[in-house]
Amino acid sequence: MTPPPPSVHEIQSPSSPPYALPSHLSTAERLCHATGVLLFLSGLVHLGVFAVDGGPWEGPVSWRKPVTFGLSFGLTLVAITWVTSYLRLAPRPRTALLAVLAADCVVEVAGITLQAWRGVPSHLDMETPFDTAVSMTLAVGGGVLVAVLTLFAVASFRHRPTGPAGMALAVRSGFAILLVALASGAAMIARGVVLTRTGHQEAAYHSTAPLKPLHGVSLHAVLVLPALAWLLSRTPWSEPVRRRILWTATGLYATAVLATAVWATLTY
Fold first, then answer.
1. What are the distances in angstroms from CA 18 to CA 29, 142, 145, 156, 204?
2. pLDDT digits (tens, 9 = 90+) for 95-130
3. Is residue 27 exposed (0-12), middle (13-18) or buried (19+ Cβ within 10 Å)?
4. Phi/psi class of residue 3: alpha, beta or left (left: φ > 0; alpha: ψ in -120 to 50)?
5. pLDDT of 164-216, one tens digit each?
6. What is the pTM of this model?
7. What is the C-alpha to C-alpha distance for residues 209 and 267, in angstroms, rounded to an integer?
8. b/e per residue, 119-129, with b = 16+ CB within 10 A?
């Protein structure tokens, strides 16, 4: 049987502490981190724009969307770049997937930001040919996002991730919960498109509300749980104690996801 490829942490300098953050980032990783930071800063800038310009926070046309999408996509890109360094994935496929993910994140945030400045909805807007093109581009970009992140999730379960005690559990649980976020996001887009195509534009804008909490809560488990595992590895606590803490945190996170799923089901 062919052994799995090593993770980034298994091929770093022998002088580096076990499972330390990689001391030498690849060019692709540096670009992804830089892109993620810029997207995050874009969200913060638009939070400032909202504070000055005002207007509604909720609704299909508001500064909320470039704020939340900029912050969320930026954080997610940085998180995925870091977390995938624990996957037993060959460098070339990982680099290619990260490049696609970074480009997709930029397209998504740029399209949403553009429409916010134009004062029109970014998603499910078929009023003009240009708005339709933007809306469909964002929908296709969402599909690309689902495909890339699903491939990373599959890789995390195909071969056990490396890392300190509990990291494999954290990475796999994070990706499993992330798949819930992807599914809920796809459901929002699919239902909205159907309502829009059948002439129920206003209903389409409001149809996403029940799934937003589920989508938001489940989206960042892939950062929170591995980050907790990494922080616990820096403590003097024994491995069994750290594992118990991580199992508890995973259970609590899964409970929160389940609660928002129940709420979405009851209000959908």
1. 20, 36, 32, 20, 50
2. 999 999 999 999 999 999 999 999 988 877 778 899
3. exposed
4. beta
5. 989 999 999 999 999 999 999 888 887 877 777 777 777 777 777 788 889 88
6. 0.87
7. 9
8. ebbbbbbbeee
